[in-house]
Amino acid sequence: MEKRTLGKSGLSVNPVGLGCMGLSQSYPTFPEKKDAITFLRKVVEMGENFFDTSEL
Q: pTM for the full model?
């Protein structure tokens, strides 16, 4: 998967992040906690490393 470097930190992230707001607020119905954890583990296995967890 393509990565981009953030500033001068050397930290590399995916160019498109995963929005996580639907896992806990704003978009009912919410998944069960165990299902959300399974989902997040799967996307990490697939190479995702940029997660948007803001509450806006």
A: 0.78
